[in-house]
Amino acid sequence: MSARPARFASVDALRGLTVAAMLLVNTPGDWSHVYAPLLHAEWHGITPTDLVFPFFLFIVGVSISLGIVSRAEAGAPRDRLVRALLWRAAKIIALGLALHLFAYLMLDRPYFRPWGVLQRIGLCFACAGLIALYVTPRLQWALIAAILLGYWALLAPFGYAAYTHLPARVDTALFAPWLYQWDATLGRGQDPEGLLSTLPALATTLLGVRAGAWLRADALRRMVMAGAAALVAGLAWAMVFPLNKALWTSSYVLFTAGCALLALALAHAAVERRGWPAVGRRFGANAIAAYVGAAVMTYLLLGLGWMEPLYRKGFADWMTPQVGPYLPSLAFALAFVGVWWWVVWAMDRRGWYLKV
């Protein structure tokens, strides 16, 4: 019988705050009036919103180390772990495809989009989990470096402009027009969760795996030093390979992983060492339920035509004359997060946890 892996409340808290941030930036009342930090960078550059998805993938890697790797080290059969890993990854991918099918039907979109957030999470979870089980830590570091340098070498000859970069060319050749963005006049498309850019996203997840090993060893100082080094290295690299979420550039991987490492170190110091409350833990314990449930709610409200009147009558009509259009839009997003905070709070109280 293998020992039950240790559960870190700080990881649940950081995961939960990340999911709450996802909901906040995905559901403003009015997309025409959103504060700049709550929008993605238009192309090159980074905003706080651009940290959300890499934080989640990084935490996926941390969870692999805390769960799968620790079970393997405790003697659990690897073939059983691999089957469970691949089955869970397949369910995450299937759930992402089902969500996109629901959006396609509810919102009358012209194309079904096969790529997406959950699909990328599932792919990175499967690949990083297999690597964590069968590749030594030293070789994992070498693989991370090879991915980041190789991705730079692949993209550099084509440049980093929208629609003409190599990931866009690959996605257009293989999946057009079923992409997040499709320009029929150019005959080109691009997808921020497309095929080729999933490769550096795997590096983000593997960096989380290594951070999870440091967390298990309580190596807080190493986490802080590595986080600061990755952040500085990412900024330096950005001078020749720009920070870009849509391309998931190698500089973006290092910079966001550095931020995530520092956030994890802070959460660990606050929660496990000092005993502070694990704010966000309930969101983290039911992350999939919150993300999928919020997406279904959004598609239903939009598809039924209820989103706009709900925002207008509940927020904009009486708030805008007093404070302008931006604060009501933010208030709607905060209320949406509040609804789902209540849902996950109620689920946690009853011991209900959606496991995929």
What does this structure look like?
This protein is an all-alpha fold. The protein has two domains: 1-39 and 274-356, no CATH class; 52-265, no CATH class. Helix content is 67%, strand content 2%. The chain is built from 13 helices and two strands, in the order ααααααββααααααα. It has helices spanning 9-26, 52-73, 78-106, 117-134, 137-155, 166-175, 198-216, 220-237, 250-273, 281-285, 287-303, 307-323, 326-349, and strands spanning 181-183, 188-190. A two-stranded antiparallel ribbon has the order 1-2. The chain is globular. The model has no long low-confidence stretch (mean pLDDT 95).
Give the topology, please.
Elements: H1 9-26, H2 52-73, H3 78-106, H4 117-134, H5 137-155, H6 166-175, E1 181-183, E2 188-190, H7 198-216, H8 220-237, H9 250-273, H10 281-285, H11 287-303, H12 307-323, H13 326-349
Antiparallel strand pairs: 1-2
Helix pairs in contact: 1-2, 1-9, 1-11, 1-13, 2-4, 2-7, 2-9, 3-4, 3-11, 4-7, 5-7, 7-9, 8-9, 11-13, 12-13
The coarse silhouette is globular
What count of helical segments does DSSP give? 13
Number of domains: 2
Strand arrangement in the largest pleated sheet: 1-2
> How far apart lie the N and C ends?
23 Å
Ranges with pLDDT <50 over ≥5 residues? Answer: none
Strand content: under 5%
- Rounded to the nearest angstrom, the radius of gyration is 20 Å
Task: Give the helix/strand class.
Answer: mainly alpha
| DSSP summary, beta strand count | 2
Mean pLDDT: 95
Helix content: 55-70%
Encode the helix/strand succession as letters.
HHHHHHEEHHHHHHH
For the largest beta-sheet, the strand count, sense and barrel status come to: 2 strands, antiparallel
